[in-house]
Amino acid sequence: MSIKLSEISTMPPHDSNKKKIEAKTADLVIKIGELQHKLYAEGKQSLLVILQGMDASGKDGTIKTVFADCNPSGIDAYAFKKPTEEEFAHDFLWRIHQKAPRKGNIMIFNRSHYEDILIQRVHKWIDDDRAEKRMKAINAFEELLQFDNNTRVLKFYMHISQERQQEKLQERIDDPSKNWKHKAADWDENDHWDTYMKYYEYAINHSSIPWHIAPCDKRYYRNYFIASKVLETLQAMDPKLPQLPKTDE
Asked: What b/e sequence results for 139-172 when a residue is b if at least 16 CB atoms lie within 10 Å of its CB, and e otherwise?
């Protein structure tokens, strides 16, 4: 069944209690840290977390909150921006593959290879045929990581409403502590909202590894939703602390 983003709420469930959810999230964050420690010590598998969404959907805040209890030695985050001249000279996945996590580590992508079939398609820098070929390459890349390199791929679409995004963008103008985040170009991208949604749905519905649609209009529930999925994934990976071999006495 195809996912239609307009049919999925960007808000928490009506019966959710903010204080209770925040308390649950704090517990999840501790458990994520405990399992990340085991993952790092074990050194046999890795986790790639992809956070993809419109500007102001909360990617930075999610990283700061959900992974707050992790050991910095075994976790990295990378924000993909406009490709450099060197990166433009290679295939579009060249810069992505270099940031894939080593065994034992968690890598968080703040934006990702999906930019190359989103913004480039929205602005008609590539045509549909090229975008479809890139989608196939992306699927092959993610399957290579997951099934050949023991890297679990966990993907989140940061599902924020257009109205909430506009509020957050305005905060960057009104709040002096957030002025540094303001970019006039972000408002220009908001004007292309419907086109972005069309191509996000394409990427989500044509991925071989499923996406999680994270409701992001309320920060407390966004953090809880993503922390829950991260913990669930780490628990399924079931990393073990290495033990010294038993010796005969």
From this structure: eebbeebbeeeebbbbbbbbbbbeebbbebbeeb
